[in-house]
TrEMBL record, chain A:
<keyword id="KW-0411">Iron-sulfur</keyword>
<keyword id="KW-0479">Metal-binding</keyword>
<protein>
    <recommendedName>
        <fullName>Ferredoxin</fullName>
    </recommendedName>
</protein>
<dbReference type="InterPro" id="IPR001080">
    <property type="entry name" value="3Fe4S_ferredoxin"/>
</dbReference>
<keyword id="KW-0408">Iron</keyword>
<dbReference type="Pfam" id="PF13370">
    <property type="entry name" value="Fer4_13"/>
</dbReference>
<keyword id="KW-0249">Electron transport</keyword>
<comment type="function">
    <text>Ferredoxins are iron-sulfur proteins that transfer electrons in a wide variety of metabolic reactions.</text>
</comment>
<dbReference type="InterPro" id="IPR051269">
    <property type="entry name" value="Fe-S_cluster_ET"/>
</dbReference>
TrEMBL record, chain B:
<feature type="region of interest" description="Disordered">
    <location>
        <begin position="1"/>
        <end position="24"/>
    </location>
</feature>
<keyword id="KW-0503">Monooxygenase</keyword>
<dbReference type="InterPro" id="IPR002397">
    <property type="entry name" value="Cyt_P450_B"/>
</dbReference>
<dbReference type="Pfam" id="PF00067">
    <property type="entry name" value="p450"/>
</dbReference>
<protein>
    <submittedName>
        <fullName>Cytochrome P450</fullName>
    </submittedName>
</protein>
<keyword id="KW-0349">Heme</keyword>
<keyword id="KW-0408">Iron</keyword>
<comment type="similarity">
    <text>Belongs to the cytochrome P450 family.</text>
</comment>
<keyword id="KW-0479">Metal-binding</keyword>
Length: 66, 404
């Protein structure tokens, strides 16, 4: 599973950090998403998909490993 | 695209069902996900009541939030049907890229991490107000004693309103919450507040302190923008959180099993706050204007059309939330749109969470037998307000008849 974040789309709402603070963070300046772990294990799938679904600006995309 | 006719309502419904103060107007559930309604001027508009459709509209850049493109959905005394563009700094009623500039300047000040650092201070403020309630005896108006002052003090702290100005500031903002205030009084309060904020902005520019306004004086914002941004932050952060605390407490008092969950299970607090946000949806409605023809739920919304949104109805869409009319704090309800959705989703939501997560359990643990001090029908509901809530919430605790 790979997470990519589009910081141009991000509005810094923090929903990803709220959902999984070990995988996401926000930068101090603009509050935009920082991916701390872009390739988490399969056991984190639920949180990752939830973070992507909750993102208000559609800034997160998740691709499953082939 | 379907051509099946949509249900039509005679106007945007606003009346809550009798005896069910937390339920959205009953007409809304019957017209999910999309209906036609006449706007205030009689021209045809759209009404979104479905969860998926509300998310679709609020996250689609083809639906604009620009003030000058909106038209009144409901008639409003003293409000023209069309408004001028939002003044500089009032970025809620703008679209990207104008909106993006302000949002970026502010989002870093309201991150999850920064807001969590405030937890201890918020808990201290909460405890001080509980102490004061306890000292005053076994009854209080929860709105005046608890729900209003806590968010006000917190936002003062964050913005950088000096302690010695807190009283003046609270007095200034009280008029906004006063249901009896006339348009003239509101206007005067607004001007006084803007004047106060202008002085404050200039003071921060001269002598910066550790707060958001001081940080913003370091940006390229003009004085007018700064004052408007500060006004917006206050307007968005005071009344909303205050009403959530008061109405949320009222809802818990009417659902004792759920009150017990909030009081007794620390693990349930975070999820419980989300459920209260969903269930109460105090920012109950919104609207957007179509910038071009857009297909929505199989129907063609034309360029210029106004789409009204019922967040309250969307948050009770059974397709998204099973048994939606049940308040269930243990429900996994993340993803409600109580803070909105899309680029305008609440900037201060992480602060609101910190405040609510502190305020509900502390209140209920301090006064485990908290109860309404008046019959339910005497609780004054803010039925006409953009932000739903209660004007007063008389509560009592301790032995029956004590402290009266």
């Amino acid at each position: 599973m790979r997470i990519s974040a589009d910081r141009d789309r991000c509005i810094g709402a923090g929903m990803c950090v709220l959902t999984a603070a070990d995988l996401f963070d926000q930068d101090e300046e603009e509050g935009l998403v920082l991916v701390r772990d872009g390739a988490p294990g399969a056991d984190r799938e639920k949180d990752v998909l939830r973070a992507a679904r909750l993102c208000p600006s559609g800034a997160l995309s998740v691709t499953r490993d082939a | 695209m379907t051509t099946a006719p949509l249900p039509e309502l005679p106007e945007m419904p606003t009346a809550r069902p009798a005896g069910r103060p937390f339920a959205p107007p009953e007409e809304l559930a019957a017209v999910r996900p999309l209906a036609r309604i006449p706007l205030a001027d009689g021209s045809p508009g759209w009404l979104v009541t479905g969860f998926a459709a509300a998310r679709a509209v609020t996250s689609d850049p083809r639906f604009s939030n620009r003030m000058e493109l909106q038209r009144l959905v409901l008639p409003r005394a003293g409000m023209p049907d069309r408004m001028p563009p939002a003044p500089p700094g009032m970025f809620l009623q703008t679209d990207p890229p104008e909106h993006t500039r302000y949002r970026r300047l502010l989002a870093g000040r309201f991150t999850v991490r920064r807001m969590r650092l405030l937890t201890e201070g918020v808990e201290r403020t909460v405890a001080e107000h509980l102490d004061a309630m306890e000292r005053a005896g076994g009854t209080a108006d929860l709105v005046a004693a608890y729900a209003q002052p806590i968010p006000a003090l917190v936002i003062c702290e964050i913005l950088g309103v000096p302690t010695e100005d807190h009283d003046r500031f609270q007095e200034n903002t009280r008029a906004f919450n006063d249901p009896a205030a006339t348009a003239e009084e509101m206007g005067r309060a607004m001007q006084e507040l803007a004047g106060y904020l202008r002085d404050l902005v200039n003071a921060k520019r001269a002598a910066p302190t550790d707060d958001i306004l001081s940080e913003l004086t370091d940006s390229d914002l003009t004085e007018e923008e700064l004052v408007n941004v500060a006004t917006l932050l206050l307007g968005a952060g005071l009344d909303t959180t205050a009403n959530m605390i008061a109405l949320g407490t009222y809802a818990l008092l009417r659902h004792p099993d759920q009150l017990a969950v909030m009081r007794d299970d620390p693990e349930a607090v975070d999820g419980g706050v989300e459920e209260l946000m969903r269930y109460l949806s105090i920012a109950h409605t919104g609207q957007r204007a179509a910038l071009e023809d857009v297909e929505l739920e199989g129907h063609m919304v034309k360029e210029g059309d106004i789409v009204a949104l019922s967040m309250a109805a969307a948050n009770r869409d059974p397709e998204r939330f099973p048994d939606p009319d049940r308040l269930d704090l243990r429900r996994e309800a993340p993803g409600h749109i109580g803070f909105g959705h899309g680029v305008h989703q609440c900037l201060g939501q992480q602060l609101a969470r910190v405040e609510m997560r502190a305020a509900f359990p502390a209140l209920l643990r301090r006064f485990p037998d908290l109860r309404l001090a008046v019959p339910e029908e005497e609780v004054p509901l803010r039925s006409d307000s953009d932000i739903y809530g209660v004007d007063r919430l008389p509560v009592a605790w301790g032995p029956e008849g004590a402290g009266r």
